[in-house]
User: Which sequence fits this backbone?
């Protein structure tokens, strides 16, 4: 299993990461059958410092599900950026992870988007497994 | 009539792809129990090992978050619907926890014993105590405010506490700086503080930095900490700490004290105002005396420093209402707290929408303590032309020169020590009493250390006195160099 990003989706995630640098960006991935056709950029509402944290509010989560339904697709997961850090999930990412979602992470170094990876929570919540990412 | 629970996308694989599930029960907790009984696989994702709902699982009864109702005990009526709404979060490292992974490290038996009064409170609990253990606070100064703050932070189990100071312990510190005892007089404050904090709690890390915070080192110093606790006593450092907090994205647990009044707030959070939103410009130098000049009630920093520590702990725990956008003013004489609302200023030069201060500047100059070189050249006046030294003053007195010595301190300071022959007119009375001064004599103005008298000199020049000099270093310098028989304060 893997995740496929349409080219405009890949570009939108990278652009969002650059735009909010040095803060983290976040957004929803919408599509169907493992293909992301649309992103929904969401405000980073963390109260713990956006340089190292992101948080999607419940109402924004609901908006993302609503948008997916409206498009006849489903919510496949979320993306966020790691400013000046590698595209590897952190302990915090793991603590907050939901099953079956794809978590796309883009590394943004000195304002330039670099590596992009995608991850899924293991069934017992013990770790993330990397999934293939094609764009 | 059963109730329905709306299931979010990532949990639908557990509910046979159903978007909603019918359940029954009298409370939110019972509905959720019925749900996890039907679909056992959900339990791990909704509940933590201790049986509590995970903190990123939001449950809405109709459109209300049950956290603001009666949580899982909230009663449900027929037809009410529940929604499970995910919080999606994450980020680099462990967020407020600087050391990845440490947030999940378990508490030792020693820690469980030590922090038991925290652990039994639901607002802290084991998870909160782990957050404190993974958290870090940098205290700027190990003085009046830094003492109680660092001691309570250490006792509470904040995992890493940094202290910046360069001073040595003086007898005059002991009236309020409880980190230091009589036996520590003459020792470095950092050594004294470290001993005290390690004794209070050997399970945490104490980092010490023997330096002054400067524009060169502030951002590096702040980087490895979650919260900065400003316990400074002067304006240049206060503006420096504020600006560095904004630039580094670190919250500033702020406090200040003077005589009987204290102030506290939390500045430089993303959504809240910073110190410059409140005070865009520093006061003119000398106008606001420091504690060394104006005095401070010894217990006052105990109250304000502990408020700062409380805010730092709340920020780390993520509980309660922080003092963001609120400015707390405490009057010890009236025993009254007041609160001012603060707004983030869109035009703030540091945290506004179009900041003009994007790196740290020269804060001594910003606060007018050192004249701008260009300005000094333009007027042709060197600083020393308006100053005199204790030794020169003594020579002139001994030589029989008719020098008028103006003491601008307060009467109670005058009672402690004085320069023989000096005349006392407190700075605040000078505007209505300057006519008492001779225009045909050299006047030497002095205070305790030279700050207030510089202000007096400036004022006297502005009303036509041409022959006024400031005694550099004030009466403390006079006692050091000329008359060591008098007590210093």
Assistant:
């Amino acid at each position: 299993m893997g995740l496929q990003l349409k080219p405009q989706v890949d570009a939108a995630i990278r652009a969002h990461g650059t735009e909010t640098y040095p803060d983290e960006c976040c957004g929803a991935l919408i599509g169907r059958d493992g293909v992301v056709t649309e992103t929904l950029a969401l405000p980073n509402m963390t109260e713990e410092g956006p340089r190292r944290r992101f948080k999607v509010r419940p109402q924004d989560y609901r908006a993302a599900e609503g948008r997916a339904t409206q498009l006849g697709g489903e919510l496949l997961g979320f993306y966020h950026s790691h400013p000046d850090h590698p595209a590897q999930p952190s302990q915090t990412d793991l603590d907050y992870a939901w099953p079956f979602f794809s978590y796309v992470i883009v590394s943004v170094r000195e304002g330039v988007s670099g590596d992009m990876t995608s991850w899924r929570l293991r069934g017992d919540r013990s770790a993330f497994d990397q999934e293939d990412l094609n764009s | 009539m059963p109730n329905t629970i709306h299931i979010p996308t990532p949990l639908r694989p557990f509910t046979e792809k159903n978007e909603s599930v019918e359940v029954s029960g009298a409370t939110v907790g019972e509905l959720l129990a019925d749900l996890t009984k039907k679909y056992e696989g959900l339990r791990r994702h909704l509940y933590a090992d201790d049986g509590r709902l995970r903190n990123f699982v939001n449950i809405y009864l109709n459109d209300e978050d049950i956290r603001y109702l009666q949580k899982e005990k909230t009663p449900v009526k027929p037809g009410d619907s529940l929604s499970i709404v995910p919080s999606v979060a994450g980020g680099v490292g462990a967020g407020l926890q600087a050391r990845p992974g440490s947030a999940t490290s378990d508490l030792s038996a020693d820690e469980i014993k030590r922090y038991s009064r925290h652990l039994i409170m639901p607002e802290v609990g084991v998870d909160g105590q782990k957050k404190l253990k993974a958290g870090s606070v940098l205290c700027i100064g190990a003085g009046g405010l830094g003492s109680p703050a660092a001691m309570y932070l250490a006792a509470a189990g904040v995992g890493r506490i940094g202290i910046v100071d360069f001073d040595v312990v003086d007898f005059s510190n002991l009236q309020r700086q409880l980190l230091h005892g009589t036996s520590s007089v003459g020792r470095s404050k950092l050594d004294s503080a470290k001993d005290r904090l390690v004794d209070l709690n050997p399970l945490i890390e104490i980092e010490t930095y023997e330096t002054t915070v400067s524009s060169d080192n502030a951002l590096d110093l702040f980087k490895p900490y979650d919260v900065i606790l400003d316990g400074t006593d002067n304006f240049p450092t206060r503006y420096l700490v504020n600006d560095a907090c904004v630039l580094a994205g670190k919250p500033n647990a702020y406090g200040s004290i003077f005589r009987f009044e204290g102030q506290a707030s939390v500045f430089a959070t993303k959504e809240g105002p910073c110190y410059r939103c409140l005070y865009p410009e520093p006061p003119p130098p000398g106008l606001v005396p420091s504690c060394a000049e104006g005095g401070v009630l010894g217990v006052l920093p105990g109250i304000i420093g502990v408020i700062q520590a409380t805010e730092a702990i709340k920020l780390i725990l993520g509980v309660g209402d922080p003092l963001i956008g609120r400015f707390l003013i405490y009057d010890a004489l009236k025993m009254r707290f007041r609160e001012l609302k603060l707004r983030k200023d869109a035009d703030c030069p540091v945290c506004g929408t179009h900041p003009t201060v994007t790196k740290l500047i020269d804060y001594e100059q910003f606060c007018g303590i050192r004249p701008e070189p260009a300005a000094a050249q333009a007027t042709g006046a060197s600083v020393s032309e308006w100053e005199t030294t204790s030794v020169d003053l003594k020579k002139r007195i001994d030589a029989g020169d008719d020098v008028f010595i103006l003491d601008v301190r307060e009467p109670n300071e005058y009672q402690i020590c004085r320069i023989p022959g000096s005349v006392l007119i407190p700075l605040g009375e000078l505007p209505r009493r300057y006519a008492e001064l001779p225009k045909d004599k050299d006047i030497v103005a002095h205070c305790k250390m030279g700050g207030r008298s510089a202000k007096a000199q400036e004022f006297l020049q502005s009303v036509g006195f041409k022959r006024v000099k400031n005694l550099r270093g004030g009466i403390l310098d006079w006692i050091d160099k000329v008359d060591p028989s008098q007590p210093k304060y």
User: Anything to note?
Assistant: Chain B has 19 helices and 19 strands. Chain B touches chain A through 38 residues (CB under 8 Å).
